[in-house]
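Suppose you are handed a protein chain with no further information: no name, no annotation, nothing but its sequence. What can you learn? This example shows the usual starting point.
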Amino acid sequence: MGKSTLFNALTKKGVPAENYPFNTIDPNVGVVAVPDFRLDKLAEMSHSEKKIPAAVEFVDIAGLVKGASQGEGLGNQFLSHIREVDAIAEVVRMFEDDDVHHVAGSVDPRYDIEIIDLELVQADLQGAQKRLERVERDSKGGDKELIAERDVLRKIVPALQAGKAARTVALDATEQLAAKPLHLLTMKPVLYVLNRKSGTVNVDAEGGERWRQLKEFLDSTEAGHVIVDAGVESDLSDVHDDERADFRRELGVSNDGLDDLIKAGYKLLDLISFLTTGEKESRAWTITRGSTAPEAGAAIHTDFRDKFIRADVIHWDTLLEAGSWAKAREKGMVRTEGKEYVVQDGDTMEFKV
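A reasonable first move is to predict its three-dimensional structure. Written in structure tokens, the prediction is:
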């Protein structure tokens, strides 16, 4: 509950957010800037004409109900939409409010998570069992790819039958590669977005059995989670940046839930940013953690990968301390790195090709 309201606040797009189930029929997509004070500081240092942040794409998909994998609610239509995303953010209602309808009739966040997760498991199980039957037969011809797929399915299907997510199955790098084309819903990483509402009874503030069960689940699974107040964030989306802090204090919401959500989503996808800065622009570039310098360069242009010679590298705060690239070079703060260098989050780089 609050999913589309939260999406509106994130993207400032006019997505319907009325108070009733199944209002979201088609998925809505919005590209959201990743908050990064490092970029702000570098742009200020360089007097950049433009500042371009990293971005995350959020997709608002209709909620699931019990029986969705069997076609209840809007069922498989939305399960197919989820298969296209890289990670799942489950918005979980945390507040009591008689004026806001709950599809299950009562507020129990742990139960809501169980229902959603079970429906995803059931949807995966249907597809995985059928696929396993097929590859059991077709792999007899000795095709190595089919044998690899069969072997990984033999591990995953029993877990799904036991009600467990596919991501709980221990797979090595080769097995993960074989599992990727299956597009399993429960292989995707999950972030739980705990949606509070100011001025009402919230499960975490109440501190009763519902919160104990939810906290136990989050701790035992080491699941990523953030706490937001979708209503407050929606109200603040049109407020000028300079005034938001004052409004938050008045509403009793100390942290920026949207910033927390965006950053958590970026982290969940195992993404980091390296930076470039100059008079024309300062920019944060998105790469996968563990990328080498040439792979990072490809984010700017394929020539930076294919014709890579070297990269000049300095961490953003060291560059800021120096005051400019020129001064950093004079002081010997800039390193020259080759093709094997693994780029670190916050590296500021210039590529030589």
